[in-house]
Amino acid sequence: MSDDDGCDCRPLGFLIGLPFMLVAFLLSLIGMVLWIIATLLACCCPCGICCAGILNLALSLIKAPIKVIRWFTKQIPC
Fold it and tell me: Per-residue pLDDT tens for 25-44?
């Protein structure tokens, strides 16, 4: 997981990104609930395509905390 510039440890970016990661974590909890509901709806729906957009949105919300903290740590130089 090393970057191109060779800096792996960026504690300042991590600390600055923590409040935003907390908000993203709350969004990921909403994403988990959406994912469960959409999965249940996809089982009931005969075509299965109806809930594909909701499932994709839910998965992107679940991955949000990781994306946020990676973005913040990349913004701070070593």
Answer: 888 888 899 888 888 888 88
